[in-house]
Amino acid sequence: MHDSPGTDDQQDNQKVVEKIVDDIDSLSGHDTIRVRDMVEELGQATFIPLLMVPALLVISPLSGIPLFSSVCGLTIALIASQLLIGRKRLWLPNFLLQREIKGTRAHGALGKIRKLASFLDRHAHQRLSFLVRPPLNKLVQVLTMLCGLAMPFLELLPFSSSILGISVVLFSVGFLTRDGIYVLSAMILIAVAGMIPAFALLHL
Fold it and tell me: Does the record's keyword annotation contain Zinc (predicted)?
């Protein structure tokens, strides 16, 4: 199963993001949640929902954990690259699959982003859908991969990784709901995130 607009993976425009948050939150009753648990919960063939999970987590309070943004970025880059080349099932290295967070901490973090999830779901509509269809969908996938690759380098700069995380969330919602407005919004945020390192260098 391949995550692109028009496939069986396309979600109902209502509750797209909230459902993913609920699915991951359903695991928070355990002492710890591993990346492997999240993949098994959502399914290895659901690339876009799996792409959204680390992006949501990196904009949550969990991003304050040292190297957490780097791990999320690497995960995003690996998922996006496999989506780009058309793999049918996701592969992640074992060291990523074994990464874990405390269930109570995950529950608290997911609670913090529920309002954002609800907002994104309410405002998603099929607009400018050509941006998430071939051939432009490949450009969006490349940009998503680059967002993930950039996160480890931007971890020390406040808000940079979170801005890229929001961009990946917007790309993901855009794919799932065929909403090109979210894709355009994500591109603007990427441009903003790119200005932060330049601004920091100018003020060294």
Answer: no
